Each structure stands twice: as C-alpha cells, then as structure tokens.
Amino acid sequence: MNLFDLQNVSFHFSNSSSFELEFKDLSINQGECVGFLGANGAGKSTLLRLLAGFLKPQKGKVLFEHKPIGTYGAGELARRMAFVAQATPFAFPLTVGEIVEMGRYPYLGRFGRVSAKDRDICRNAMELCDVVEFQNRSYDQLSGGEKQRVLLASALAQTPEVLLLDEPTLSLDLAHQLRFFDILQKLHRTQGLTVLVATHELNLAAQFLDRVVLMKKGTIDADGIPAKVLAPARIHSALHVSVEKLKGRSRQTYFAPVAKKAAKK
Q: Distance (Å, rounded) from C-alpha 58 to C-alpha 218?
C-alpha cells in the first residue's frame, strides 16, 4: 500500500534563489525502511519536512494514504508520525524523563495526566535507546549523542506508524550509531514501522536499509535497493567523494574513502 506519494512537487525557500527541490513522482510504501542520501544541500531534510507536513510545496501534491497531507489535523499526524530532528533546543530546563513523556502528549486530553501505561511505554522506549540511567538528569547536561538518543526515545514513546529522522547519528559514536540503526531495523521488522531517514552514513545505509534514494541538487539521482544504487561512480557524482567497494567476512558490503593523491612537484 502506498503510504506517501509526491506528485509533481516543486519547493523552494522564499529567501533562496539557489535551491529548488523537484520531484515528478516519488512513492513510499507502508512498512518500508528508506534512506535519503546526498551531499549537504541536496534536499534531504527538506524532503523529510515535506513528507511530515511541516512544509508545503509551491507546486504539486504530497499525499499521505492518498489524501493531501494538509487535510490531516496536527493531533492525528502527531499520533501517526514522529520526527527526530538533528538538534532540538528546549526553552525550559527539562529532565530526560520529562522529554520522553512528551512523546505521550498526543494521546492525552487537554488536562490529561500521564498514566501508568504511558510511563511503561516511556520506560520501554528509554531502555531501547539506552538512556534509562539519564532519566532524572537535565537534558542540557547531556552530550550531543546522548541528547539524540533521548529524542529517539521520545519519538518512540509516541508509538508512531512512521518515523522520520534527520541525520540522527550525526553526534553518535560508532557503537551507538550501530545500536541506533539496529533499533530502527528491529522496530521495522517486528512492528512494521515505516522508517524514513536522511543520512550521510553509506555503510549504515548499505547494512540496515531496504531502499536508498540518492539525491543530487534537489532531484532524485537514483532510487532502489542499496546494492544497486550505491555504486562508487554514482556515489562520487552525488557526494563528491571517491570510495572503494569492499566485502566483509559476512559478505556485507562496505565503502572505504579513497584519498586523493598529492600532486607531484
């Protein structure tokens, strides 16, 4: 079943004449695990925000379950989609536990209280993201990587059908990058969660994602399974870096950057 459809979409920021995102057609099925890859400024984050309904295209349509996404109420979208941004500042000092509980707000009434069931959901989300030990600490006291794991826990506490993530592993060490994508893959496989992630991580994309959309200057350069899309020549064209494609012991594909040779004097 088609979950998202972009039809003849064109978008540009009013204060920018150099960037324009254009898609004649892009469909995402329910239950897919899709990565959007591309150089800085390729349009990955903008595309995620169009899919989430945060931005409106100047032309064309963004459909969610065959209906324009703008026809859905904010509360319904918040119960069905969760968005994890690169960095989220908060106006007031909050503990990690309070931020994770914010993920339950779409399910509470105007004066609703967090129930025991809500707390169980939040606890499970924190355990998944390895942040239980931080629950009573101030969010502002955490490192960038720890904050990112807290934001994922808050998003998972929403129990969404769709999870959209904008470069979520940017501040994570290697161990937590692998842990982060492992969590996404397990949720995708066990709960049928649709996962849409903007990332620069070629190796994580090749290992964990079902589909890759390679973007270049606001358009789709290639779209398909990682083994087909992530070819060294195409990566060089879109990301401006030379890579060598390698095979690990488990036959898993890896990419190693190839340094430019210094010019001889």
A: 14
CA distance 180 to 203: 14
Nearest CA-CA partner of 258 in 245, 246, 242: 242
**Token code pair at residue 85:** 């941004």
Domain ranges of the chain: 2-257
Beta carbons within 8 Å of 120's beta carbon, 6+ residues apart: none
Place of tokens 């502002």: 140
CATH superfamily of 2-257: P-loop containing nucleotide triphosphate hydrolases (3.40.50.300)
Region of poorest pLDDT, from 9-23, 166-180, 250-264: 250-264
Contact between 187 and 204 (Cβ < 8 Å): no
Residue 56 CA, chain-centre distance (Å), reads: 19
210-227 burial code (b ≥16 CB/10 A, e <16): ebbbbbbbbebbbbeebe
pLDDT reported for residue 247: 81
Q: For 8-60, how does the pLDDT look when each residue is reduced to its tens digit (9 = 90+)?
A: 999 988 776 667 888 888 999 999 999 999 998 899 999 999 999 999 999 99
Q: Which of 184, 121, 114, 120 is nearest to 149 (CA)?
A: 184
CA 38 to chain centre: 13
